[in-house]
């Protein structure tokens, strides 16, 4: 039993070493492909290395790089995060955080990018590349905030302009309605006035009587003289008539 147990232990160690060696070989092949720019084939090699050794820090880290170079930034974030979590030394951890920040930055996820760069600088404060990228991300964040403020301001101005335009249209409609109403009232008033004048003219025509005409003073004196002469003639006729009757009475 002891002999068999010892043999099994040796076999386990041998297999582990063999798997580890095979994983390292696949990583080396992947690195050659990565340098040649064949990122797809490099990705395949790194995945095989991880299958043989799931705890392979180098395989996980390099797989993130190969995927990043293919523009699959969201997937790269997962592998960089895994590499940072299993990294033991500060250099590898800060490098993983730096690449993690780059993957977030490529997605315009500025807040997460800034946080990753800050964590990397806590581990390695002298890393100039991380400082530069952090400054760039902060600048992009500021510009993004300014753009958002401008967009909000333009949206508010647009809403105010729409409200003002709506108010102007409403006022114009009310003014047009008022002018139309005043015009109708004026037309009705003119119509009533016209009807009243026609009725007045009809009444005046039905009740029309001759009116005395104005005369001059000379015309009035002539008329008085004529009347006076006519009156004298009447009186004279009356006197003559009385004499005839008295003469006749006396003769009879």
Please outline the helices and strands.
Blueprint: H1 2-35, H2 39-52, H3 57-69, H4 73-86, H5 90-106, H6 110-123, H7 128-206, H8 217-251
Helix pairs in contact: 1-2, 1-3, 2-3, 3-4, 4-5, 5-6, 6-7
- Determine the fraction of residues in helical runs and give it as a percent range: over 70%
User: What percentage of amino acids are in beta strands?
Assistant: under 5%
Largest sheet, if any? none
Number of beta strands? 0
Which descriptors apply to this entry?
rod-shaped, mainly alpha, disordered C terminus, 252 residues, single chain, 0% strand, 8 helices
Written description of the protein model:
- This protein is mainly α and 252 residues long.
- The chain has 8 helices and no strands.
- The chain has helices at 2-35, 39-52, 57-69, 73-86, 90-106, 110-123, 128-206, 217-251.
- Helix 5 runs antiparallel to helix 6.
- The protein starts with a helix and ends with a helix.
- The relative contact order is 0.04.
Write a compact overview of the structure shown.
With 252 residues, the chain is mostly helical.
């Amino acid at each position: 039993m002891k002999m068999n147990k010892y043999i099994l232990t040796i076999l386990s160690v041998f297999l582990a070493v063999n798997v580890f060696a095979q994983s390292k070989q696949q990583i080396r092949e992947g690195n050659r492909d990565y340098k040649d720019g064949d990122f797809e084939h490099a990705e395949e090699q790194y995945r095989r290395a991880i299958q043989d050794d799931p705890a392979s820090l180098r395989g996980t880290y390099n797989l993130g790089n190969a995927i990043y170079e293919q523009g699959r930034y969201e997937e790269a974030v997962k592998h960089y995060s895994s590499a940072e979590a299993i990294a033991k030394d500060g250099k590898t951890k800060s490098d993983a955080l730096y690449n993690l920040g780059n993957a977030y930055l490529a997605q315009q996820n500025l807040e997460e990018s800034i946080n990753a760069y800050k964590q990397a600088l806590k581990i390695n404060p002298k890393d100039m590349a991380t400082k530069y990228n952090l400054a760039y991300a902060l600048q992009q964040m500021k510009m993004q905030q300014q753009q958002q403020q401008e967009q909000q301001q333009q949206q508010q101005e647009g809403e105010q302009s729409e409200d003002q335009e709506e108010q102007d249209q409403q006022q114009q409609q009310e003014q047009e309605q008022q002018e139309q109403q005043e015009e109708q009232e004026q037309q009705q008033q003119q119509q009533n006035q016209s009807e009243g004048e026609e009725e007045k003219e009809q009444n005046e025509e039905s009740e029309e009587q001759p009116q005395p005409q104005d005369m001059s003073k000379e015309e009035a004196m002539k008329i008085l003289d004529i009347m006076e002469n006519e009156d004298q003639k009447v009186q004279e006729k009356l006197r003559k008539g009385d004499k005839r009757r008295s003469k006749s009475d006396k003769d009879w």
